[in-house]
Amino acid sequence: MPSDESAPSYALEVTPESALQFTLTRTPASAAENSSTDAGVTRCTMTLRHPGKTGQHLAFKVKTTQPRRYLVRPNQGIVAPNSTETVSILLVEKDKQILLQSYDRLGQSALDHSKDKFLVQSCAAPDEFASLYDKEKRGDEQKSDGYKTSKEMAEKLTSLWDKTSTSGETPVFNKKLHVRHVVMEIKSGTPDQTPQVPTHRSDKTPVENMSPEQMFSEVSSLRRKYDELVAFSVNLTAERDILNNSLEQTKRDLNREIAAKKTLQEAAGGASADSRSIARGDTGGFSLSVVQVMVIAIACFLAGIKACNSDSVDFLQFVPILGPMLGMTGDVLTDVVAVVEDPVPVMPDPPAMDEMGMEG
Predict the structure, then answer these.
(1) What letter would DSSP give residue 108?
(2) What is the number of other CB atoms lying within 10 angstroms of the CB of residue 9?
(3) Cis omega (within 30 of 0) on the bond before 351?
(4) For the stretch 28-60, what's the b/e string if a residue is b when 16 or more beta carbons lie within 10 angstroms of its beta carbon?
(5) Are 48 and 8 in contact (CB under 8 A)?
(6) Would you list the DSSP string of 3-31?
(7) How far is CA 80 from CA 127, 224, 267, in A?
């Protein structure tokens, strides 16, 4: 892929540029019996190249919207300046069969609108970390099976990307890739393209009687199975870490939402309770009915009449507001008291008259 001058210095060049194509083939019966071959295994490779715009090493991470469908190896690592890294992507057999069933029902149109996507992220790696990665890689490349990221290094890479994504201080370049699935039909008359190895363990040949070619075939078969198992375990470990981080973040968000909702409910509950109390006329749990209010009013009225008759209301004139309101000024009250205190005049008896009608 030609170098993109507009891309930042921390961007890796990805090949293919826009889409990953997976060619689906039906596993022939002969290949299914011969487990030492990779017939029917759907793979796709992706090349990551350091353009050399910077002297720093670039860290990469490959993500997908379907982590259970694809096995990516390696899914993260570091690329030195002007060097490349090849990423192998394996389509799981179970999902491959599901895609083939969709193709059988609806044809190629069922696979043309795949929503599967890959995301390649790259950023500048710290020099100290890059040196440690290169040292481990050079030591492992001397082995016969090549370099494989150790568990400790994989955890350090995961921690590096977690810190990068949370801090936001290190710029990250994102490259999105779409996925295409294409079915390759194999006619029944077409000879099997998979090279057949006549000497295989399927004939139940004892190990001590196997020829060198048979031993080599058996070792190759075991080696391929081992590589697939390692790729699967590495992918599961990475996905486990991602799911654990997502789960913890989801728990924190859920706890915050529950706390905020509880606070709002308590505030709304208190306000509604106060309004209901006011509407009911509740004052500390004490309430009166209409009949009770009328009985109390009549009792107070009668008590007031009795108090007036017993001259027990003189003190009301001294109340600043109640006295003038009742019209009980000093003069009026004095007159009232005087009228009450003055005795009723008694008329004298008429004078006695004698028999002649003359007063004596």
Answers:
(1) G
(2) 14
(3) no
(4) beebeebebbebeebebebebbbbeeeebbbbb
(5) no
(6) --TTS-TTPPEEESSSEEEEEEEPPPHHH
(7) 11, 28, 58
CA 82 to CA 55: how far, in whole Å? Answer: 9
| Cα distances (Å, whole numbers) of residue 267 to 126, 135, 263, 271, 272 | 50, 60, 6, 6, 9
Average pLDDT by stretches of 10, the chain with 360 residues: 74 94 78 51 93 94 94 93 94 92 88 92 93 83 64 90 89 95 71 42 62 81 80 76 83 90 84 63 61 86 74 63 59 49 55 53
Would you state the structure tokens that stand for residue 326, as one six-digit string? 């009742």
First-to-last CA distance in the chain?
A: 160
Token pair of 105 as six digits: 């029902």
| pTM (2 d.p.) | 0.51
Sign of the Cα pseudo-torsion (210, 213, 215, 221, in order): negative
C-alpha distances (whole Å) from 255 to each of 244, 261, 263 are 17, 10, 12
69: buried, middle or exposed (CB in 10 Å: 19+, 13-18, 0-12)? middle
- 157: exposed, middle or buried (C-beta count within 10 Å: 0-12, 13-18, 19+)? buried
Cα 50 to Cα 82: distance, rounded to the nearest angstrom: 5
**Joined tokens for residue 41:** 């295994």
Dihedral (Cα; 159, 164, 167, 172), 10-degree rounding: -170
Indicate the SS3 state at residue 322: helix
Taking the C-alpha atoms of residue 268 and residue 271, their distance in angstroms, rounded to an integer, is: 5
